[in-house]
């Protein structure tokens, strides 16, 4: 138990430097036994890249045979362009495609295709899910979405061996996943605030305190009209 705690602390301390190559700390990390088996795709490491897809493409990619225990696995990131947390982890996620070229790694804009949020239980972003045969089987729950933690998550979930020579480079800052949060107006947030203000105002008017204020305003208005 002491060795396991010490090892986890070491991974957390080294995760802040994304440019540090993967070492034996990934190999020595305990692997979880899963009830499914991921089958690696045929790949060319040099061409491995994150695919940004729309909702139709995502559902098409995930349309596997649900009855098999062996099959393709897909790692999906649900993000929004104006989320600074998504932008912060983007370089690490972009590099992850080169670490695991045998794995389909894709990203989808959860704001543009909001119908997918309820389907896959996305209530916050960034949200990372591993799919097997069209089912979400594992969710990345670590609060620190560092390069090392992402690599460990994929290794433990799929059993794939990472390419430990890969590091996060300056090219990963430019895409495919954007590393700079987009400045935009969040209309959903604006509508939410208007809804909260409307409900609060309605409840205040219906309350006894609200009725007292309304009566006072009516009395002042009537006095003003009488003076005129």
TrEMBL record:
GO terms for biological process: cilium assembly. SUPFAM superfamilies: Thioredoxin-like. The chain crosses the membrane at residues 187-205. InterPro entries: Thioredoxin-like_sf, Thioredoxin_domain, TXNDC15. One of its GO terms (cellular component) is cilium. Pfam families: Thioredoxin. Residues 39-159 form the Thioredoxin domain. The keyword Transmembrane helix applies. The keyword Plastid does not apply. Keywords: Membrane, Transmembrane, Transmembrane helix. This is Thioredoxin domain-containing protein. The lineage of its organism: Eukaryota, Metazoa, Spiralia, Lophotrochozoa, Mollusca.
